């Protein structure tokens, strides 16, 4: 990188940041795995806990302008609780990925479960992962830089 001194400086900064920050990144990964495991335990078999997700119902009006009434259709949302596409927390890897995406602001499917331990766990995870740990990560990076 002697011929490209500009990019070499940036690559050197990135390498130095990674050398200092990797223990914190490992700790953050462990916390994410712990919250993913907790959600997996809570929601891998929701029937055992007595949970049934709240699905949405939609009504479609099919009235024509020529006074032809075709009727109203109701579409109900149905959940397959053993499918990872419907229940992210049915398998441990999907559960960990779903919790990781909380850091990015993707809180999918949490409004479907009306269960207070899930609300408590997501509030604690939101405060710990999103607010505290991301700010600590940013301060570590700024300190190294």
From TrEMBL:
It comes from the Eukaryota. Keywords: Membrane, Transmembrane, Transmembrane helix. The chain crosses the membrane at residues 20-43, 88-104, 116-137. This is Ion transport domain-containing protein. It comes from Glomus cerebriforme.
